[in-house]
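Input sequence (289 aa), recorded before submission:
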Amino acid sequence: MLPSEWELVERLGVSRGTLRRAIGDLERNGLLRREAGRGTFVNPAARLRRVVWGKLAQVAKPDSRFHFDFTSFIPDFEGSPKCVKAICQTPEYRSAKTVVAMPDNNLEGFRCRALADGKTLLVFTYAMLRGILALDGGQIRPEDRNLAATLDGMERFGAKLSFSQLRATGAIDLLVTGAAAVSRDGVHFGKGHGYLDLEWGLLSEMGLVNQETPVIVSVHECQVVDEKVPYAAHDVTVDIVVTPSEVVRCYPLPKPTGLVWDRMPHEFAATRPYIKEARRLHKPLIEVA
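Predicted structure, token format:
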């Protein structure tokens, strides 16, 4: 919690108006949050992102669209092929048939390997705007895999699933994601938009994932934080943290059991067909064995 207003004015030697404008700017940028009757608090997730992103800029690969704007994408980084190799050596991956992979830049190599291994790959399009694409590794020619693993190539080689088709895929065996940052005990931080939480919530609402579905995160060492960080019931947690130099198995933390409807952004709920259909049904649709 920040000190009181008068304490900050005294300590910093600024006017009250200047202080209020500065706090307002930090609040709009997500670094501070106000709680009525309690005070103004530092947002730990936003603080960690800023610290990690400063280090990540030294090893990250720029995006063709967003350059180094880490608020817009999860970057690839030096050593990511080692992460792919480590993920593919886990028993969770080896036994998986249907894998959800996030459309993160650092997972392009993983998506290519999953296709080469004949996995069924489900990939959310950016912000769920065009739903989910399914790619059957057994049906994609070896010479096409590199292209099919890219964001643009997936649109060409993947099949867009309707809500009912997604339900019919059955239980998902594994989810692999990138992150802005992750704690060693498995608390995942995205870019701050909450897409992973919504995507997991949708899959959980449909009965395609549950508490036992493993989640693996692929990150650079600088994205792993040692401190304990708070998390909420709607936050997706991870079971395995993979970096170029180590594999960390986390003590299992609870995962969301569905969509949190009272936190659902109105615009998001109104423009995403899957979410609209899930709201209409608003109950688990199938049991995960």
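Checked by second reader. The chain has a mean pLDDT of 91.
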